[in-house]
Specification:
By secondary structure, this protein is mainly alpha-helical. It has one domain. Helix content is about 90%, strand content about 0%. α3 runs antiparallel to α4.
Length: about 120
């Protein structure tokens, strides 16, 4: 019976430890997402959110140094999601600016057209 417990304990320890591998793929994806988000457009519209994202990545590195792999995996996935949201927000702000610009052009054309029509 003791042998069964010893074998079971070894089995749990062996497979338990192997489940706590560093989430290297997630971390790599988080780094790529951060690099992709770190551009002039994001810096123009959402500089503080980019800085917060960089701080999260620093925290991720610290979790890895402490071998807190489960937390690191979660944080790396959060960084990826935040980076995607950040890029979408910036794209939306750019689109809104383009719409405002085109509306201004349309208003100018309408004004000019009205002046021409009144001049006839």
């Amino acid at each position: 019976m003791k042998l069964f417990y010893i074998v079971s304990l070894i089995f749990v320890l062996f497979f338990g430890c192997s489940a706590k591998k560093p989430p290297l793929r997630d971390i790599s994806n988080a780094k790529m997402a951060l690099v992709k988000a770190d551009n002039d457009k994001v810096k123009k519209y959402e500089a503080m959110k980019l800085i917060n994202l960089q701080k999260k990545f620093s925290a991720l590195k610290e979790l890895m140094n402490q071998k807190r792999y489960e937390e690191a995996k979660f944080l790396s996935q959060e960084i990826q999601a935040d980076a995607r949201v950040l890029e979408k927000k910036v794209a939306l702000k750019e689109a809104n600016e383009a719409i405002k610009s085109k509306n201004g052009e349309i208003n100018l054309i309408n004004k000019n057209f009205t002046q021409i029509k009144e001049g006839e």
